[in-house]
Amino acid sequence: MIPIDSLIPFFVASLLICLAPGPDNIFVLTQAAIGGRRAGYSVMLGLCTGLLVHTLAVAVGVAALFAASPFAFTALKLAGGAYLLYLAWGAWRAAASKIPFEQRERIPLRRLYGRGIVMNITNPKVLLFFLAFLPQFAAPERGPLPVQVVTLGGVFIVAVLLVFGTIATVAGSLGEWLAKSDGAQRVLNRIAAVIFVALALMLIVQSK
After folding, report:
1. pLDDT tens, 153-195?
2. Rounded Cα–Cα distance for residues 17 and 156 (Å)
């Protein structure tokens, strides 16, 4: 077991990392502003599912093999960039909706959940970050390392839920207010498109 005096510094570090502006929290903010709090929460849960996949990959050693393959790294980041560009195109073309916001909020949340998963899994930097970050707080004398890595990954996900949940709540409330205006809806969609393009370019040009 990992002692509490090691888990607390890890949790604090995780919170600070989640608070730092990055692709994932910006993605949650954008989706919540457009679709409301439920949309933001769905994307957040999708991102956390992706983090769970990364945690398991680190625990079984897949991440180390992946990090050694430049081809896999490039292929994954290009796939993620292409997906973000696809989302940007859809957001740019979206017109202001005449449907009340309460009804527009009922769009299939599984689709937003899936967006969060794809967004997270196709970012190889997240996997490499977990590979570098989680083992720092594990020690062989405490027991099996895979169990410790999974525990640390779970604690990190709790930090993500706290920070991203707050972002989704605030951005969702603001989005509900702005959505009363057709002009504001169009502006939100265009801003989202620009952000998606920026995130795609950041992902495509990043190196190990």
Report:
1. 999 999 999 999 999 999 888 876 655 555 656 666 677 677 7
2. 10
Please determine, for residue 9, whether its predicted confidence score (pLDDT) is greater than 50.
yes
C-alpha triplet 93, 94, 95: angle, nearest 5°: 115
Q: What is the pLDDT of residue 105?
A: 45
Range of the domain at 108: 4-11+24-205
| Neighbouring C-beta atoms of residue 2, cutoff 10 Å | 17
The whole-model pTM stands at 0.76
Q: Residue-wise over 165-204: b if at least 16 C-beta within 10 A, else e?
A: bebbeebbeebbebbeeeeebeebbeebbebbbebbebbe
Category of 181 on φ-ψ map: left (φ > 0), alpha (ψ -120 to 50) or beta: beta
Residue 18 falls inside a structural domain: no
Instruction: Say which residues have a Cβ less than 8 Å from residue 165's Cβ, sequence separation at least 6.
Output: 41, 44
Highest mean pLDDT among 6-15, 70-79, 105-114, 174-183: 6-15
From CA 164, how far away is CA 24, in angstroms rounded?
9
Q: Is residue 140 part of a domain?
A: yes
Q: How far apart are CA 89 and CA 197, in angstroms?
A: 9
Tokens of 1: 């077991």
DSSP 106: T
Asked, for residue 19, whether it belongs to a domain, the answer is no
**Cα within 13 Å of Cα(159), Cβ side:** 21
Residue 191 is assigned to a structural domain of this protein:
yes
